[in-house]
Every structure is written in structure tokens, then in C-alpha cells.
Amino acid sequence: MNKIILVLILFFDIANFAKAQADTAIFAGGCFWCMEPPFDAIKGVTQTRAGYAGGNKSNPNYEEVSSGTTGHREVLEVTYDPRMVSYAQLLKVFWLNVDPFDKYGQFCDKGEQYTSAVFTSKAEEKLEFEKTKPKAKGQVHTLLLEAKPFYPAEEYHQDYYKKNPIRYKIYRFNCGRDKRLKEIWEKRR
Questions:
Q1: For residue 177, how many other CB atoms are within 10 A of its CB?
Q2: For labelling alongside 188, which of 40, 59, 63, 156 has CA 20 to 30 A away?
Q3: Sites in the chain below the pLDDT cut of 50
Q4: Residue 136, pLDDT score
Q5: How far apart are CA 148 and CA 52, in angstroms?
């Protein structure tokens, strides 16, 4: 009996240690389906969740957010181990996956709910945002916003690119995301 209790205590201590090492970042980059794959590929990212942030309504749903009436943006919550990947590295991935010069949305999705933003309340993350922000002749429209509650999107939106790979690829292609990203970032290399 004592061995079982000892194992349980050890298990919970390890679980709590792992949680203590995790941090989260919230990125709005237009369609949350398209933001998941690049972050899922990063060593040190332990979880990504599609969701909503920035508005004033509690527990909004997709229909409400996509209508543009709640003030929320489609976002991705990235849980990561800062011992393995830095916030600055996450920001670099973020910038390479958004059009920071589009103030009306991202790619084929238009409206405030699809505009790009980084949500944070930490001073050091705000400094990293400014440090990594693209230098450009055109105005950068990606906003740095104060963190607000994150609301997970409906289950069918989570890992959409894995659950519906063909539909996802068709949407991404038709939206022109990769073509525009190539135009933006090849010029800056």
C-alpha cells in the first residue's frame, strides 16, 4: 500500500513539475487552422489549441466570432517548454506565417476577427515583439494586445489539418496564403 502511495505522489510531483515548466503564447494569424501546423512542428511546443481571444463575450462560438460581432480574433494558444524553445523563436515562426502589412484581415479572410495580433501581458514578451517585428517601408498592422481570456474553439476545429487534410489543403491553396507568404518573405531574405 505504501508503495502505491509513493508512486502516486511521485507521479503527481512529476506532473506538477512539467506544468511549472510550461508557458503559453497567444497568436492571432487569421485562420487558426493554418496557424497550427507550423507551431506543432516546433520541438518544445507541447500543445496547440485553436480558439478565440480579445473580445468581451464569455465563451463565444465560431458563428459568433466569424460574424465579427464579438470583438474576438481567431487565435492559436501555444503551450511550450521555455527550456526548449524561446518566446522569440515562437515569434519568428509567427511572423513567417502572417501578412503583417494587411490591416483588413489575413489572406482571403477579412474582418477584425481575422487580423493579426500577439496577445501578452509580460513586459519581456512585449520587448521581444518589438525586437522581432519586421522592418519595412510599409506599415506593420499586426497589433500587440493586452492578454485577455482564451476560449477554446469547438472540437472540430482542433487539429483540423490532421482530421481533414484534403479540405484543409484546398482551403489553404484557394485562400492564397502560401503564395502571399512567399511574396512577402522571399523579398526580405
A1: 22
A2: 40
A3: 13, 15-16, 18
A4: 78
A5: 10
pTM of the model: 0.87
pLDDT at site 68: 96
How far apart, in Å, are the Cα atoms of 67 and each of 15, 63, 71?
A: 39, 6, 10
Distance CA 22, CA 16 (A): 10
113 within 8 A of 153, measured Cβ to Cβ: no
Q: Grid coordinates in use for 160?
A: 483540423
As annotated, the active-site residues are 31
Q: What is the pLDDT of residue 4?
A: 64
H/E stretch holding 160 reads helix 160-163
**In CATH terms, is domain 21-187 a member of 3.30.870.10?**
no
| Whether the Cβ atoms of residue 114 and residue 72 lie closer than 8 Å to each other | no
Give 79's contacts (C-beta < 8 A, 6+ positions apart): 22, 23, 24, 45, 46, 47, 48, 49
Copy the grid coordinates of residue 148. 485577455
Burial 100-138 (b: 16+ CB within 10 A, else e): bbbeebbbebeebbbbbbbbbeeeebeebbeebeeeeee
